[in-house]
Amino acid sequence: MSGKDVLMEALNAENAAYVAEQYLQWAKDPHTVDLTFAQFFKNLGDEASVVFEDALGASWSSLSRGREAKEEDQGVLGPAKDASQALQNQEAVSDSVYALQLVRAYRVNGHLEAQLDPLGLQRSQVHPDLALQTYGFSEHDLDRPVFTGNSTQDLLKSEVVTIRQLYQALRTVYCGAVGAEFMHIQNVEQRRWLMHRLEKAEWLQNRPREDQLAILAQLTEAEAFEVFCQKKYVGTKRFGLEGGESSIVALHAIIDRVVSGGVRSVDLGMAHRGRLNTLANVVGKPYEAIFSEFSGTSTQPDGLLGAGDVKYHLGAQATRTINGHEVTLVLHPNPSHLEAVDPVVVGSVRAIQDADSEPHSRYRHMALLIHGDAAFSGQGVVYETMAMSQLIGYRTGGTIHVVINNQIGFTTVSAHAFSGQYCTDIAKSVQAPILHVNGDNPETVQYCAQLAADFRQKFAADIVLEIVCYRRHGHNEADEPSFTQPVMYQAIHSHPSTRNLYAQHLVQEGALTAGEVQTLWEMFYHRLEEAYQKTQNFQRQPVQASALAWAGQGRQGEDSSSPVTGVAEETLQKIGVALNTRPEGFSVHPKIVRQMKARSEIFRQNGPIDWATAEALAFGSLLLEGARVRLSGEDCQRGTFSQRHAVLIDQKNQNEYMPLNNIAPGQASFEVYNSLLSEFGVLGFEYGYSLYSPGVLVLWEAQFGDFSNGAQVIIDQFLASGESKWQRFSGLVMLLPHGYEGQGPEHSSARVERFLQLCAQNNIQVCMPTTPANYFHLLRRQLCQSVRKPLVVMTPKSLLRNTLVTSSLKEMQTNTAFQAVIQTSLGSKPVRRVVVCSGKVYYDLLVASQERQVDDIVLVRLEQFFPFPLQEMTRILAHYPESEMMWCQEEPQNMGGWFFVEPYLESILLSLGRKEYFPLGGPYSTRFAYAGRKAAASPAAGLLSIHQQEQQALLEKALL
Predict the structure, then answer these.
(1) Which has the higher per-residue pLDDT, 23 or 146?
(2) Alpha-carbon gap, residue 603 to 911, rounded angstroms
(3) pLDDT of residue 557 exceeding 70
(4) Pairing between strand 833-837 and 791-795?
(5) Which residues form the Transketolase-like pyrimidine-binding domain (predicted)?
(6) Which residue has the higher pLDDT, 535 or 518?
């Protein structure tokens, strides 16, 4: 520890007056102060003066003036101390300095020797920084007094303490049932606040009797629920909480505390371990509902869609009154993908906060995430979620993280599960404090939970509470854990439950009698038995955590037509004026100035409108209609291809201006956020946001569509199947740049085939529009149609500036709508072939046909893959009973849309009486031929020359 560190520690500990007095004296005459201080200040040099002035401010000046006045009155400095006095001073100062070092060492590393493991198998480390000998103290020094100033006021209520007193107090606070990590935090106010709360040592005393009774009741409910289920449903998987019952105490303490502090909704996310217990005893899901799911006796009401999910994945919502305040509790459903729900919960909370018109909405709605130890350290989405915690577009006023540390993940012990000191080390990356607590000490768990709640409410920052416990059964109730952890499970089998240990403690101290403890158990167990008897005729209810927000939403068939989404010309012109206007004196980049001037002329001529302008018109028109628009993604403010420029940057001072937020007074707000470099986390966040925002156009844009596969868990488990499994409704829009331009395997394909494989039961919409007007209508349709479904849009890259890819304003005006199929004839001759395609390849076919003077082919663009526009496509193909039929795509045959559309196209031809087969179909007997790249393992060729050869080959096959 450097001299400056010691000095700063003294100042931070409010021991400034003593050290400053010594420094002032030394500055006047180095020979008049203790030798230790003299050497100490000499080593600091000029830095000492700067430190004192910065740290003490007025206090330093006051001390300086006071010292000068005293010296002026005396005329001379006091007499030099004799050798004996100097030696005593040197020892006293040394003791003070080393004592401060000892205090700091325990604040930094005390957690390493904390008693955290209820089983006693994990021995705490012996760290040299925590040994008295490191600081020159021996057994003979323990009763020697030492001056520590205000640094020990919370610990010992005194500025002068013995070494023994100081050592014992530090061991009790920092090496007992709590291991606190907070000295990594750079925010001095947060660090001092935590230090004060820990060293006040209220939690070292017995909790008030009402708290003790509440804790025992919560432990009783938690344990009895698991015991009851184990007896009634022997061998059934439930991923019980046995061994971690203190987590229920923690959740109650957090929720009760934040509700008293003004929180009015808490959204919880957790994996399967302990979920049923949390649903029942925290959220308040009826026991009858849970037991009916065990027995499979519940009936499904009419109109409740979906295959559902296993009981330990389901969520629930309840409104409860806590401490006189009404609060909404939502436990979000989650698949087996453990931490995948984290960003979904945080995004949902942000949406609720944004919709709340009350002041301090960030504090009124909170996310509470419950993690497993192995998943917290092993799943990257945990970091992605925490990394968003303080970003402008994603902050929610802090998330409380509770880690239920079973000390084992499935069969993997911590030595194989993570590389750091603790499973929670990742939280240090966002400077979140971490409290490790022994799960068999429920009173301490409660206090730490309350501390975590207070920290979140005060600092609007994340905090982690890790409850170190154990798992009484195996990974599930039918698993045999002693195969791989025999020593641990020998200890577990002989270890009393947390409830039993705590009940014994209360009986011993006279808070309760053994009979009262037993009565409490029997009463609750009887309540469970009554609920069990009611399960036979229990009717399942729809699980809709965002049901109120989505009330009135209907369902649509797979071939529903699009509503009219055009707007009045004067509205489009009004938006155009805003797009091309900037504040007086606002210095825009010269290239953008030229674009704005050119765009102004385009609006005067009613077109042609390019892709980015059509998007802005769609956004602007929705804003004028009162609908908010939220867009996020990597570099989406400017746009990956420098096409959007939704936020203008003043070239002189970095100020920002958003034209779409300045169309007209009273309009809704347009929010566009450049995200962190994350797909999994950010897409999960925006999906969560969309769950509570049916009236908001919520969009996520991938930098390239190829990168969306980094968020495949969110796409598969939430976006595509969330409504079917959990009755969660979403209108999220995914914008995925897609198109083969020779940029290689990672910059060509948004993997449209993966989305198409997920399509069923009208769950999502997948579109690949080819005109700005159709894109305009598609975005507006998302809010104008009566039913919201997630929308996946394959957006263009090179087409953004292709002069062929334009639309007129008339195509967006009143009485116009999205076209799911567009037909284009290439000539007046009898039609030899109908080529159906989608996306950018249409323009390649168009240009190639003009170059080759092909005039006997009709191009049919499929703008919407799903729901498949069966009626529109049938109507078009019926006009060509004698023509060849072909599907053309850029993607390899095993990718793209071919395998998805081929059955639909075949069924259309069969319905039209077409029975012949075409040899162009390749290895398949089909009425539709295929033109495109051969099946491949990689989405695209890496060499431009190969790409061009493949592209020319598929065009020739389609046209010749």
Answers:
(1) 146
(2) 46
(3) no
(4) unpaired
(5) 609-802
(6) 518
